[in-house]
Amino acid sequence: MIEPNSLKGPDLRRTDVASVFVGQRYVRSEEEAGTVLEQTVAEWSGAPWPAGILSLSCFLSSEKDTVLTYAQCADGDSYQPFARSLRGPAGAGAVAYRPRRSVVPPGVSGVPGCVIIATFDVDGAERQDRVMNSLVDVLDVAPAEQPPGMLSANFHTSVDASRVLNYAEWTSVEAHLAFLDSRTRVKTLRASGDVPGVRPIGFRRYHLHRSIDAREAGSAVHSMRIS
Q: Which residues partner with 53 through β-bridges?
């Protein structure tokens, strides 16, 4: 059986991920958020997974008004039919992304205390690459210049070429708040703002609720029920 992990989120460094599906559901209260999260985990745990799904994770925003789902897949064909087969909140629509580039400061490790999801609206694939590369240039610097508390920054580009998403892992909320007042933050704003055809949508801070990894069940995950 696969046990949902409430502490460790998806492995952003695994090399077998070809596609990522990110969904967002807005909720009216913390109580509704809790219901949606538990229903989502129950649906994932009660359905057999197709072989292409590698991990499923769900998060709650700091404001407790948004539930985010993050699905890692070995291909682009497994997740959507699986999601459509579910009748509850786990079956909601998601945007298809490809993982592209990551920045991982050397010598930094630990369980993320929070996850920041920042998104950009862009005009096509060339703008996706330009803003992504500009942001990587700002963040991929010498250890002494790295933002304290940043564990990783992981850039994704949407399959429809309309979005760039950064899934950033931080040691704590306090570390991210300090970053927002730093020179590096100013540089990232300049790096994205200087690229025509790129419009920052903003960011939200999330905390992991549950994560389920298919590797915990071995190669037979597609025929197992998860609990």
A: 73
